[in-house]
Amino acid sequence: MADATAQLLAGFAVAPRLDCPHVLALGERLNADLSTLDVTAPCEVCGDKSENWYCLSCGRIMCSRYVQGHMAAHATSGKGAEDEHAVCASFSDLSFWCFRCEDYIEHPLLETCRCALHQLKFGAAPGTEHVSLENNAPPPKGSSSK
Ligand SMILES: [Zn+2]
Ligand SMILES: [Zn+2]
Ligand SMILES: [Zn+2]
């Protein structure tokens, strides 16, 4: 069961933070139905499809700092409460990043979301498809995250 997760985590250069308080602030948004989410959707600002993030607060999809940084701009633009738009999920490697903690994060409450994203990206729940994981998930280029 832990194999797929281990493979995903193998891409991390640093150990994720485990005590991000902003996950709790998401509240019931953690239970949002992700079944219609398009994990290949382009950045809503620039249309880039290469490396996008999903904002767990509002569901918007924008590009990473390695593209044009639209998600970072969204998360740090200052509108809303301090704990809003902090946590986002990567469509590239299904990792979670918190823009307030400025770190990769792991949290039990995020596992449902990760499983849903994994299902969408690979067509199966984590741990059930070693082959497709290798076929569909080339390592992110220059995997030096952050
Ligand atoms: Zn945080
Ligand atoms: Zn963009
Ligand atoms: Zn947002």
UniProtKB/TrEMBL annotation:
GO function terms (MF aspect): zinc ion binding
Entry keyword Metal-binding? yes
Stretch forming the signal peptide: none
Domain UBP-type span(s) in chain numbering: 18-124
Recite the UniProt keywords alphabetically: Metal-binding, Zinc, Zinc-finger
Task: List the Pfam families.
Answer: zf-UBP (PF02148)
| Taxonomy, superkingdom | Eukaryota
Query: PROSITE patterns attached here?
Result: ZF_UBP
Cite the PANTHER family for this sequence: HISTONE DEACETYLASE-LIKE PROTEIN (PTHR47665)
Per its record, how is this protein called by name? Answer: UBP-type domain-containing protein
Specify the species: Thamnocephalis sphaerospora
